[in-house]
């Protein structure tokens, strides 16, 4: 699972080249329910373990192609934002450091 945050700072779960937004917990909070980030166009959902983030169940198929490149870009952006917040490095240093490994 990659560590990506949405614009509003919410956690995004990635699996097999697709992104999911947290929706809810089950009644005893042992499972997390995620929905596809394109909830209006795609009905795919996924269930994960709260403790291990292991995928337990996948419901429906996606109605679009995977977004591997977008996921990589979002990971870099999330890392840049966090690093800029945590360090006193100049902006150009943060950008160069964070984008050096991107394909």
UniProtKB/TrEMBL annotation:
One of its GO terms (biological process) is negative regulation of DNA-templated transcription. The keyword Ribonucleoprotein does not apply. Residues 4-62 form the FLYWCH-type domain. It holds the Pfam family FLYWCH. GO terms for cellular component: nucleus. One of its GO terms (molecular function) is sequence-specific DNA binding. Gene3D superfamilies: 2.20.25.240. Signal peptide: none annotated. InterPro entries: FLYWCH-type_ZF, Znf_FLYWCH. Keywords: Metal-binding, Zinc, Zinc-finger. This is FLYWCH-type domain-containing protein. The lineage of its organism: Eukaryota, Metazoa, Ecdysozoa, Arthropoda, Hexapoda.
